[in-house]
């Protein structure tokens, strides 16, 4: 069985196909923020509501180029 997902424009621009076989999907289970406090962007000092930005200490490694870049961060 194949499911069609409603993907964001950003994912569509990156070439992500919206069709997925049922074996590749699983239900989303949100984290319990009481067990893992301080992980929400609004809980980081100086971060505010800017969810498209992240605070990092350093880039430890880099592979690829352009949209296919991968970074190791600390």
Summary of the model, kept short:
7% of the residues lie in helices and 20% in strands. By secondary structure, it is mainly β. It has one domain (2-26, 39-73).
Descriptive labels:
20% strand; 1 helix; 74 residues; mainly beta
Please outline the helices and strands:
Blueprint: E1 2-4, H1 9-13, E2 19-21, E3 59-63, E4 70-73
Antiparallel strand pairs: 1-2, 3-4
Computed over alpha carbons, the radius of gyration is 17 Å
Largest sheet report: 2 strands, antiparallel
* Run of helices and strands: EHEEE
Q: Would you count the extended β strands for me? A: 4
Quaternary structure of the protein: single chain
Distance between the termini: 40 Å
Mean pLDDT: 78
Describe this structure in words.
- The protein is built from one helix and four strands, in the order E-H-E-E-E.
- Strands 1-2 form a two-stranded antiparallel sheet.
- The protein is about 5% helix and about 20% strand.
- With about 70 residues, the chain is mainly β.
- A hairpin with a 6-residue loop joins strand 3 and strand 4 (about 70-74).
């Amino acid at each position: 069985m194949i499911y069609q997902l409603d993907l964001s424009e950003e994912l569509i621009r990156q070439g992500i196909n919206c069709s997925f076989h049922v074996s590749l999907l699983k239900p989303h289970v949100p984290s319990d923020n009481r067990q893992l406090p301080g992980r929400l962007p609004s809980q980081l000092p100086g971060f505010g509501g800017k969810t498209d930005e992240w605070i990092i200490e350093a880039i430890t490694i880099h592979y690829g180029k352009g949209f296919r870049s991968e970074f190791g961060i600390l």
